[in-house]
Structures are given as structure tokens and as C-alpha cells.
């Protein structure tokens, strides 16, 4: 189970330290002269009122791995063994471990004394699969870089990157930009939603991006679809963005599902399942170059632009979001009619998810958007503008009471939740 994120004020870190939740980290050793033996590394951290890093769960591990793309050397951490059992510098027991396969295998324990003989490093590895994993080395014979850690200072304010990535925001990492979707989605729905944002489902080229997405999945506490799918009836998987499959993060025994689709679980491992499974999230990857080839094609195309807002194709319709204009319901109807369209109607869950995803970008500007729906007193039913019945709905609590059903009533969809509300 992912650890609970601290609810207390986080505090911040001094200049030169990077923050994650309530810890500050500093990587040392860029200059080869500053690479030292383990006890010297611990002493150097103590001089800065810190100590060698303690990595207590996969979320911290993912943050540290994601911080290492420019590091070209191994790094001491605060894990050491003097007799036989490894323990952290704080005498904390070892509850979480991230050893490379076959490790620890190090020097035999000292016959007596309390000086550590075996100490752990985080690997910078030419083999991507071992990057960030731990290995044990001789504490007294080898010199390495190291990572210091200290608690945040309550008098400083937290850095923006101190928390795991949040849904609905653009996240930049290395050369890529990602967007987290936290909505109930089948794999093809997720791809459709990413493509409506000129993106595709995410491609994971290396262990650093993998660690970044692990933080996202763990922070949201939900598995996330990525852009890796099986060829029909086969266990051969390839990226939907047509990138080469250089790096993989499969759970042991995967890929299992022939012709299935891939998600990153909350521990970062990749799993396959049927593409029709509904997961609660996905990651879009926005490439820096031209948008990726669309996998999903539409009949026809959308008009070029409407005033200052482009049309976005989704399934068989085109949508134009005007969230900078605060209009009454009647004015909105007239404006859409002048543009040759109609105020929004939503006929199923996927269309609601698409609209909600795009409205989230405008949360700061507007609480929501009008629905082209009204109450027909003759039939006693809610109808869309073209008089078709409202069969799918997504009313927020407490639902719709009789007082909200009159021929003067109007209705809207909320930007931050995708729920429908009666309006004034």
C-alpha cells in the first residue's frame, strides 16, 4: 500500500538541496576529487547537519532515481552492515529494499568490532535495468559520490516539485511533457483523450522516465495506462507512438495477455490486461516535435477556427471551448447557433470524460460550461436542444429535485469534477 502523504506543513529546503515531501536531498561527487569512502561521506553529510540518505519506500526511491539522469557514478547511501544485517545510519531497520539481482553479495562480515565493512550504493548503471538499484561494496576500500539527506525547515516554503505529480497539469521531465488523466478509462478511450490533446499515450524510453511515472502512479494511488499494446493475438508488444522498444519495466512473468494493453502499477511495474478493462487513470506523452500520427481517424474534419477558439475533433463531433466568455444561458445558445453549432450535449460517459478533461484546463477562468438541455413540461422530461431525450446523466449530489425541473431551469457541467449541476 503506498505510504500516506504527510498532511502537515511540508516546510522547505535550503538553496542547493532538492525537496521531496518532508525531506531534502543533495547529490555530491560531480567533481571526482569529492568522491570518498563511506565513513567520510557520512562525516561530510554530518558537517551539513545531515546524514547519508535513508530510502524507506518505493516513492522515495522513484524520486531519487528520477533525479539521477545527469549522474555518471555510483552513490553511497546510508545503508551499512558491520556484523551481518544491513541497517540504516539512524539504526532504522531495513523495511524496504531495492537490491540489484544477486545482491547483497559483498565482503564477509568483520569478525568483531562495530565498524561497517559492507556499505550500499545506488547504481548508476550502463544497463538501464539496474539504474537506481542497490549494490553492496567495501566501505573502506572504495570511493564514490554520495547523497545527503535532512528534514525540511518549517521556516522555508516548499518547492513546487516537492509533491508527486498531480492530475490535469502539464508535467515536464527531461525532454518530454506528460499529462496525467485521472478518470475511468479503457485503453482506447485513454488514447482518444490523449489524441484530442495533440498527444499520445506515454512512451517510456529509460529508467528515469519510468521512475518519474512511478511517482505519478503512486501519488495518485492508481495504475496508469501507457502507450504499449500487444499485436493482435500476440505477446509481442510495441509502442503506439512507433518508438523502438529499448527499455522495459515488466513485472516478472509479463507480458502475459496476448493482444492486451499495458499499465504502470502503483509500484512502477508494468502489467498487461485486456484493453477493455476500465482503469482510473492514464498518462499522455506530448512529444516536442510534430504531433504523433493519430491512431484513431475520423470521418470528415472540423472547421478551421471559430473566433479565437479552435475546434477539437472527438469521435463524430467537433467541440469549441469558450471558457473566457462568461455568458448567460440564452446568450450562449445564440452564440453557438451563429457559429453553426449548438450548446454542448453529452450522450455517454466517454463524452463526459472528454469534456471534463478539457474543462479542467480552464478551472481558474470558469466554474463550468452550460449544457444545451432544458425541461419539457409537456412530456415531463429533460431534453437536449434537438429534442432528443436525456438518457445518460452525471448529476452531482444531491441529484435533481422537483424544484429544479421547470421550463425556466438551465443546467451546467462543473470544470473540476465533470459533474452536472442545476443552474440559476
From TrEMBL:
InterPro entries: C-type_lectin-like, C-type_lectin-like/link_sf, C-type_lectin/snaclec_domain, CTDL_fold. Residues 20-142, 173-279, 314-421 form the C-type lectin domain. Keywords: Lectin, Receptor. PROSITE patterns: C_TYPE_LECTIN_2 (PS50041). CDD domains: CLECT. GO terms for molecular function: carbohydrate binding. PANTHER family: MANNOSE, PHOSPHOLIPASE, LECTIN RECEPTOR RELATED. This is C-type mannose receptor 2.
